[in-house]
Amino acid sequence: MAGSGYKVQIENLQDFAKRVRGLLSDFDTGANGDRTHAESGVAASSFGPFAEARELDEKYAVMRDSLRDVLDLLYRSLDDAQRNADATARNYDEQERGTAAAMRTDSAPPAATPPGRAEVEKSDKW
Predict the structure, then answer these.
(1) Is residue 21's pLDDT more than 80?
(2) CA end-to-end distance (rounded Å), the chain
(3) CA dist., res. 68 & res. 61, Å (int)
(4) Residue 10 clears pLDDT 80, i.e. is over it
């Protein structure tokens, strides 16, 4: 299509970043890796004193640590996504403003210059 260039919807990027920030807030209160890790701890003796219970406790500890790591990674990924969307929107907005300002400057008519002395002397108007 002639005349149609690539157009970034800055509002969409800003809306995305806002939604992710809301998700991060919810995540922080309900699924924070460190908080989840702390709240899901059990005493080593919770499963019993026999070998199978100790083995279950070890597996539980590994999975608990893994869950914390996954939640922390997810949080960092979401945070990166919202920061990148904000930065991209800001950069495009600045670029659009710069382009618009340059177009206004380039399309302005040249300033009228006063006539020189020779022109005034030759003119019948004066």
Answers:
(1) yes
(2) 55
(3) 11
(4) yes
